[in-house]
Amino acid sequence: MLFDRQAREAVEPELAKDETLLWFSSPLPLRLALSAYPFLLFGICSSTVSACLTVQWIEGPMSHPVTSAPADTIGMGLTLLVFWIITIAALSVPVAAYLSALATTYAITSTRILIVRRGRPAQSFEWTIIKQAACRVFKDSSGELTMTVRRFPVNTEENLVIKLIGIPRVRAVQKLLISRSVMTGSPTQASLIAR
């Protein structure tokens, strides 16, 4: 499997010498792309409005050449430019999410959870700072894990929420998290078993 080899190659440089890789996977790209569907819907609506305004802008000076002022034409052209930039940006969000999923690898090791993204520093979360975790399963047995992580310094009450989205066979990963939290004495155990 090409993706498994690429995922392993992305994680292995991040491992310490005494650390064991228990699980790794890349998120399902289509799942991440579909999570950006509101942007896609907005982009489709915006493209419709932009296309109508473009037709009106092109047709306007042709049908009324005497009454069209150059300032109106330039103003409308700038407005259309802004509309098209917003449209292209909205339509590119699902594509960016898909490509981001291809460049991301999740890993669970004997000491921590890793999120490795190509071209960025790896994010590492030790077992001892994970406070809660919840699992959401979809019909195709993929799903997402949401974890609450204690921020540093320890005396702050703020927490960080981490989502691992598009995990294939998420129940197996959930069981692995439960077994790791039992072995490390992490408070994650109760919240994972309850879900």
Proportion of residues in helical segments? 40-55%
What kind of sheet is the major sheet? 4 strands, antiparallel
Distance between the termini: 32 Å
Order of helices and strands: HEHHHEEEEEEHH
What is the spatial order of strands in the main beta sheet? 1-2-3-4
Mean pLDDT: 78
Q: Give the helix tally.
A: 6
Question: What is the CA-atom radius of gyration, in angstroms?
Answer: 24 Å
Strand content: 15-25%
Q: Number of DSSP strands?
A: 7
> Which term fits the overall shape?
elongated
Q: Summary?
A:
This protein is of the alpha+beta class and 195 residues long. It is built from six helices and seven strands, in the order H-E-H-H-H-E-E-E-E-E-E-H-H.
Care to describe what's here?
With 195 residues, the protein is an alpha+beta fold. The protein contains six helices and seven strands, in the order αβαααββββββαα. Strands 1-2-3-4 form a four-stranded antiparallel sheet. The chain has a three-stranded antiparallel sheet with strand order 5-6-7.
Descriptive keywords:
alpha+beta; 3-stranded antiparallel sheet; 7 strands; 50% helix
Task: Write the topology of this structure.
Elements lengths: L1 H10 L9 E5 L3 H6 L2 H27 L6 H33 L1 E6 L2 E6 L5 E4 L3 E8 L5 E8 L8 E9 L2 H15 L3 H7 L1
Antiparallel strand pairs: 1-2, 2-3, 3-4, 5-6, 6-7
Helix pairs in contact: 3-4, 5-6
